[in-house]
Structure formats: structure tokens, C-alpha cells
Amino acid sequence: MKKNQKTIGAAAVIIASTLWGLDGVVFTPRLYNLDVGFVVFVLHLFPFLIMNFFFYKRYALLKEFTKGDFVTFSLVALFGGALGTMAIVKALFLVNFQSLSIVVLLQKLQPVFAMSLAAVLLKEKIRKRFLIWAGLAVFASYFLTFGFHLPDMKTDSNTVYAAVYALLAAFSFGVSTVLSKKVLGKFSFTTGTFFRYGFTSLIMLIIVLFMGTFNNFNLVTGENLLYFIIIAATTGTGAIFLYYYGLVRIRAIMATICELFFPVSAIFFDYIVNGKTLSPVQWVATVIMVFAIIKLTAQKPVIVDGKANK
Fold first, then answer.
1. How confident is the model over 90-97, as a mean pLDDT?
2. Is the pLDDT score of 37 beyond 60?
3. pTM of the model
4. How far is 101 from 106, CA to CA, in rounded Å?
5. How far is CA 169 from the centre of its chain?
6. C-alpha span between 187 and 99 (Å, rounded)
7. What's the CA gap between 144 and 248, in Å, rounded?
8. What are 176-214's pLDDT values in tens digits?
9. How far apart are CA 247 and CA 223, in angstroms?
10. Is 64 exposed, middle or buried (0-12, 13-18, 19+ CB in 10 A)?
11. Which of 3, 17, 78, 288 has its CB surrounded by the most CB atoms within 10 Å?
């Protein structure tokens, strides 16, 4: 029975990771005609509305929230929901269906930022092995992005900016990771996810109103609406709960291995849908970077926000 639970858990994480790879390459880039902030707002609002049908009773917990809880949830939503998601969506839009899998792979540097921030904010000890593997992962990420060439701001400007936004997303998710430790130490993952999406929706509403992009609702096409619904039901709410369902049934290192279906599926879908593939040097860099990240996350359990929770 226990073995079956592990198998089911691993399968759930694999399916969720594959869905995220599909989203990054196929779904979200199809919303490029809309403002980035508006897209992130709707991507959180739709799943949050769906969650309300199942978790509406969680609102009662707000009476028990301390000031610290409100601050922590707000910061998790700001970094993990608003800034991180806006950065990765902006990166996907910038490459205009070019190098989508590279953007997704760069986001996998998240554990490097998460562990570094944990050392600074939570006073966790940095080991020599961490510095070696983290350095190797960052080193490989350069060759993944540019190969053997130096970045040319004239011809590769969008690629450079997309890489910067992808790294900003990894950093933002890393900040949220550290803060999520505190949240998940007090609340269940369902409660944490519910309020994270709720707080993010509120923050993004303020942003789109301030930026004057709330009227993008008038620009939403039938195709946009279809992708919003698909994302909300699958790679949004569905994948997150499927991921957590599997996560509680397998060990952290097993989850790390299963999560490789995220970048692998991104590369696969990028080739199948867009006809794009990595160059030989990028393939080598990908293998090195993923291997280094596995070695990093295998050192100790790390609670990682959003699409890489361990």
C-alpha cells in the first residue's frame, strides 16, 4: 500500500510538472496581445474564484490572522504571485515564441536564490558544496542562454532582457520560498494556496487599476478567454493541488527528480509546437545546470513556492 502511495505521488508530481511545461510554452505565450499585468491578474483571479467554491469556509481563518500573518501572506503574494509571475510572463512575451524553453529552464535556478536568501534571512549555514553546485548552475545558465557567444545588445536584446526577467522571476520565487516556510509552518498547504491566490489577486487588481490596464477586458478575444479557462482549470488550480497531493507522498529528492518533467516537457513542447530545439552546447549546459540543481536540492529539504515546492 505504501509503495502504491509513492507511485501515485510520483505520478501526480510528474503530471503537474508536465502541465507547467505545457503552460510555459503553449498556453501563456498565446496571451501576448494583452498587458502583462492584466494577464497575471486574470491568471490568479480565475483560479481563486474556482477555489472559492471549495474553500470558502477558509475566510473564517482571517479572524485568527495576526499582523505578522497578513504581512507574510502579502509578501508571499507580492514576490511569488505578482512580481515573480509578471517577470516570467514578460520573459515569455519578449522572446515571441523564440527560446521559450530557455526561459523555462532559467526559472529552474530558483533553488539557488531560495537557499542563498535562506542563509541571509534565516541565518542558515551555507556549505562549501552549495557554493560549488550553485556556481556551476549559474555558470551553465550563461551557456544555456548565449551558447559560446557574447550577448549582443543590438541583435540579441530581447533574449538578454528575457533572460534577465527569467532570473528576476527565479529570484522573486526564491524570496517567496523563504517566506512560505513561515506560512506552511502554521497553515495547511490548501489554506496557504487559497490565501496566496486571494492576496495576489488583490495586489494585481491594485496594479492594473494604477496602470490603467483594467480595460484590457475589452481586448480579450475568444481565444484569450479559452486559454484563461484552460490555464485556470489545468496548469493553474489543477496542477498546484495535483502537485501538493503528490508531494506529501514522496521524499524531497524523488520530487526533485519528478520535477525534471517540467523543463523536459518544455523542451519537448517547444519542439513539437514551435519547431524549436536547443543547440548542442545548450543541451550540454541544460544537463549540467539540471544536475547541479539536483545536487543542490538533495542536500536538504527546501520548501519552494509555486512550481518547485519541495
1. 76
2. yes
3. 0.73
4. 9
5. 8
6. 38
7. 32
8. 766 776 676 777 777 878 888 899 999 999 999 998 888
9. 33
10. exposed
11. 17
Residue 207: which domain range?
Answer: 2-308
Q: What's the rounded Cα separation, in Å, for the pair 191 and 183?
A: 9
Query: Is the model's pLDDT at 118 over the cut of 70?
Result: no
Residues 142-169, mean pLDDT to the nearest whole number: 66
Q: How many domains does the chain have?
A: 1
Alpha carbons 230 and 221: distance in angstroms, whole number: 14
Q: Using CA atoms, how far apart are residues 105 and 103, in angstroms rounded to an integer?
A: 5
What percentage of the chain exceeds 90 in pLDDT? 5
**Contact at 8 Å (CB) between 40 and 86?**
yes
Instruction: Give 51-64 as a DSSP string.
Output: HHHHHGGGGGGGGG
Contacts 24+ apart (CB under 8 A), 142-147: 142/285, 143/281, 143/282, 143/284, 143/285, 144/102, 144/105, 144/106, 144/278, 144/282, 144/285, 144/286, 144/289, 145/102, 145/106, 147/279, 147/281, 147/282
